[in-house]
Amino acid sequence: MSISDHNVVTIGEPREKWGPCPFRFYDRWLEDAESINLAREGWRNCKVTGTHGFVLSAKLKFTKEIIKRKDEQMWCQKSRVKWLKKGDRNSKIFHIMANGRMRSNYIEEIFVNGARISAPNLVKEGVRNFYESQFHNVTWRRPSIYGMNLKSLSAVERLCLEKPFSGVEVWEALSSCDGNKVLGPDGLNLNFVKSNWEWIQEDFMRFIHGFHEDSMIVKDLNKTFIDLIPKCSKPESMKDFRSISVVGSMYKILAKVLANRIKFVMNTIIGDYQMAFVKNPQILDSFVIVEEIIHLWKYDNKGSLLVKLDFKIAYDCVDHGFLDAMMREMGFGEKWRRWMQSCISTPMLSVLVNGSPTSEFGIERGLRQGDPLSPFLFNTLIEGLSSLFRKACNLGLISGASFGDNTGFYSSNRIWSTFVMLKES
Prior knowledge:
Elements: H1 33-45, H2 52-79, H3 93-99, E1 110-112, E2 115-117, H4 120-134, H5 155-161, H6 167-175, H7 190-195, H8 197-214, E3 223-230, E4 241-247, H9 249-262, H10 266-269, H11 283-297, E5 304-310, H12 311-316, H13 320-329, H14 334-345, E6 348-353, E7 356-357, E8 361-362, H15 374-394, E9 410-413, E10 417-423
Parallel strand pairs: 3-6
Antiparallel strand pairs: 1-2, 3-4, 5-10, 6-7, 6-8, 9-10
Helix pairs in contact: 1-2, 2-8, 6-9, 13-14, 13-15
Domain Reverse transcriptase: 233-397
Protein name: Reverse transcriptase domain-containing protein
């Protein structure tokens, strides 16, 4: 009698159907001249009428369908089986057998309201409801920002922010983007856009010039996926996931252009206490300073206080009206503020659960992590918090930590957390 050293192999049915998965463009298609030629001809022959944003969105959809059909033909030829039937298309068993793709970050079940659920429709509904409530606006009393002596833009800086967009500026923004990042709802990565900018450029420039005048973004161009990244090996509740927003390719180019403009005025409107997303200061300096101050406090007999604020939660709870009020007080022009409100208030969100998106819902508050504009807008908001602390220091209500030749409030600002250091007077 011998004992086998083989492992047990379990053969079962494919994972439960969670719903259709969105289209994804692969860089290997860029090497297929026939596919690119078909996409180019389809783009140029797509005749639709409407706003420039609507035309751009329609051409993206039409081009995507052409690439999908070409890909289905390729898989049909490569599989050499009869699995591809009418209606089966590009998403079932032959595709799994052909490429052996393994799904990562798979959600089998989660706890919702204390109950464990595993049915796909209930899991997707629970995840959607969680994020819909998170981005739902809540009315509460907020401190006034008047009389805080906020820094303000100059007239020249305000005009530079709102000047017409140029083709060179757009290309520089596009070139600086990673072309192979996670794909948004339109399914086309920026490598595709870069490689075919010659025939996409005209329609995109019409769209961005139209945005300059009317501040409008059509819904399809500002759709967003929320991708869930597990924090642990076996996530059981929504707190075990980190969310990242994945925006569409056309919106990302627009947001990158706007982000490149606002970053040049951040040093004008942001105080010396903030060290994230501003020129020259290094974010790691914040932690060194905090450690040094705590070390000095050990030899001080006076009481001291260190407050750590969770900025991840604050990131999702940004009030859009308060952001607009802050930008108005900082001297941003009306046109720029309309642009920002259009970018952050018009998206339709859906959450990817095992690769399949939930139904869409609107956003009433919060900033999308993954939007190139979000870090700079969040810094603008945090300047309001810094101003409140400085005002409290000036009124003698609190005393900031002292180090070197400086005294007063000190904050170490980054995306996830802030340290506020106070010392007893």
